[in-house]
Amino acid sequence: MASFGPPTPGPSHLATKVELTISCENLMDMDIFSKSDPLCALYINTGDFNWYEFGRTEMILNCLNPKFAKKFVLDYYFEMVQRLKFCVYDIDNGTHDLGDDDFLGELEVTLGQIVSNKRMTRPLLLQDRRPAGHGTITICAEEITDTRIANFEVSARHLDRKFLWWSDPFLEFFKATESGWQLAHRTEVVKNNLNPTWRPFRISLRALCGGDPEKPIKVDCYDRHVSGSHSLIGRFTSTLAELQGATHASPVELKCINPKKQRKTDYKNSGIICVKCCQVEREFTFLDFIMGGCQLNFTIAIDFTGSNGDPRTPQSLHYINPEGHNEYLAAIWAVGNVVQDYDSNKMFPVFGFGAQVPPSWQVSHEFPINFDTTNPFCAGIEGVVAAYQQCLPQLKLWGPTNFSPVIDHVACFARQALRQNAAAQYFVLLIITDGVITDMDQTRSAVVSASRLPMSIIIVGVGGADFSAMEFLDSDDCLLRAPNNEVAARDIVQFVPFRQFQGNSVALSQSVLAELPDQVTSFFNSYKLKPPNVFNQPL
Fold first, then answer.
1. Model-level pTM greater than 0.85?
2. What's the count of helices (H) and strands (E) in the chain, helices before strands?
3. Can you tell me the mean pLDDT for 424-443?
4. Average pLDDT over residues 434-458
5. Angstrom distance (rounded) from CA 154 to CA 221
6. What whole-number distance in Å separates Cα of residue 506 and Cα of residue 12?
7. Among residues 411, 442, 402, 403, which one has the least CA distance to residue 297?
8. Which domains does the chain have, with CATH numbers?
């Protein structure tokens, strides 16, 4: 058994949740024929002098003064120094690696400094600490105490045409703050349409109106230009209290007014915005689900393909050194020791793939590592480690590297759980692998199908192979598509390269599991499933 154990525990009490809103001004223009296309990435330092990516905003085309709609939600601990770094990039290509993009500046700060300022504006710096032109970044912090959300369905009719016969309209919702209007939500663009219907969307009441239904809300309607200089079609102000009366049968209709056109004597409006639904409901938190009886079912899949090398030689990724270490074991410990606390019986099914298995020596892409097909469970993470060590000498590492069988296996159980019509079970599949996926099309289809189930997939890449295919599955920037063009319902894959963490198991587990709470809550809330043991509470 490995001699190293679980990560060092963090603070023993519950953290305060803090939401960060990011905007920038006067960014450097790195493009010749257009403006920069900025994105902000947040990095967290865990105390080992290395920075680990926590998340990214959306990318905004041709904009030197971006207001990002995507927020960062962090746990805030008063007694800890939480070092953060906000890095802004000009996105020049479609790769996940930000190292290929132009660097527009960074700000290194602590979460405590942000919280104490509530709103802070600082100059962006280059990596040699020189000013990044005149660029600045503004970070607004707000404690999350209100978990209510508003579900919207919005359309428009008779919008002004801004280019010949059409417009490409989108909406921006703003909250009134002491320092001015703050972006709360941006819809998608509906192309070539003066009577658009936008996809249903959700906004937290905290972001929309600070939880006060009588507080003003501003909505701007723009015609999108590729150049980034969007044309204002019109705007209106309202309140959540007014919009809550909307129904499909009796929508709330608001005149979209362009201030520049109000001078004209015959001007009426630039279109009508129709709010067909604005329903407020409580959104359950991750702790609501866990404390309400939801179980996390943890399954592990281990890559036993030949590219790992002969386990008997020190060059192999499966080689267990005299101290009982290898990268596979480190990943199992780091992730498993966190997840096992949320599984009441701590019995974990563990499968291997890509090996020839006794006694038939047929290649299998889904075999229990304890070789018991009727009971593939291991008792606790210690049992997983013991089963891994015992099965390794009995296998012939082979190939190819197929992910879809184990994904489909776990999806089958997640599909059965969904039929219970309650937020009672959520499934987490940890895949530890060394190389490129062979059945990429089947894997894409399996992931897209699983995105509609109570299920998440964590992929830890060991070794130094090309992991670009894994980054493709981890669709942070846009939702994954299957070969038949079906779009995933949500992002359920989190990929992390093991060697990025240089043996820091705490940082590895934090990075790997960072997205899981949001994936759990977003799934159950979108299906309006309540925790099994929750009582109805007033909004």
1. no
2. 11, 26
3. 93
4. 94
5. 12
6. 15
7. 411
8. 16-143 (2.60.40.150), 148-282 (2.60.40.150), 296-526 (3.40.50.410)
Tokens linked to 116: 């104490």
**CA–CA distance, 505 with 514 (Å, rounded to integer):** 14
**Bond preceding residue 400 cis, omega within 30 of 0:** yes
Among residues 36, 50, 41, 5, the alpha carbon closest in space to that of 22 is found at 41
What's the mean per-residue pLDDT of the chain? 90
| Residues whose CB is less than 8 angstroms from the CB of residue 225 and which lie 6 or more positions away in sequence, other chains included | 231
CA separation for the pair 223, 170 (Å, rounded) = 7
Buried b (16+ CB within 10 A) or exposed e, 514-539: bbbbebbbbbbbeeebbbeebeeeee
pLDDT in tens, 382-423: 999 999 999 999 999 999 999 999 999 999 999 999 998 889
**What is the rounded distance in angstroms from the CA atom of residue 200 to the CA atom of residue 187?**
9
What is the Cα–Cα distance from 201 to 351, expressed in whole angstroms? 38
Across the strands, what pairs with 222? Answer: 170, 232
Check residues 378 and 5 and name the one with the higher pLDDT: 378
35's CB contacts (< 8 A; 6+ apart) are 29, 62, 63, 64, 227, 228
What lies within 8 Å, CB to CB, of 44 at 6+ separation is 51, 52, 54, 82, 83, 84, 85, 510
Q: How far apart are CA 142 and CA 150, in angstroms?
A: 18
The single-letter DSSP state of residue 197 is B
How many whole angstroms separate alpha carbon 95 and alpha carbon 116? 36
Q: Which is more confident, 464 or 236? A: 236
Q: Is the pLDDT of residue 8 over 70?
A: no
pLDDT tens-place string over residues 241-297: 999 989 999 999 999 999 999 888 889 999 999 999 999 988 888 888 888 889 899
Residue 456, SS3? Answer: strand
299: phi then psi, degrees, rounded to nearest 5: -120, 140
Phi, psi torsion values for 20, nearest 5 degrees:
-110, 130
Report the distance separating Cα 350 and Cα 410, nearest Å: 11
**Closest-CA residue to 46 (of 511, 461, 514):** 511
Q: Which of 197, 200, 181 is nearest to 189 (CA)?
A: 197
Query: Do 213 and 240 form a contact (C-beta atoms < 8 A)?
Result: yes
Question: What does the pLDDT read at residue 477?
Answer: 63
Q: How confident is the model at residue 508 (pLDDT cuts 50, 70, 90)?
A: confident
Give the C-alpha distances (Å, rounded to integers) separating 52 from 5, 46, 355: 22, 8, 33
**CB-based burial of residue 248 (10 Å sphere; 0-12 exposed, 13-18 middle, 19+ buried)?**
exposed
Q: Across the strands, what pairs with 257?
A: 235
Q: Kindly give, in sequence order, each residue whose CB lies less than 8 Å from that of residue 406, ignoring residues fewer than 6 positions away.
A: 299, 301, 351, 353, 365, 366, 429, 431
- Phi, psi at residue 242, to the nearest 5°? -70, -40
With both helix axes pointing from N to C terminus, report the angle between 327-339 and 505-513 in degrees, rounded to the nearest 10. 60
Strands (E), 99-207: 102-110, 119-125, 131-143, 148-157, 169-177, 180-186, 201-204
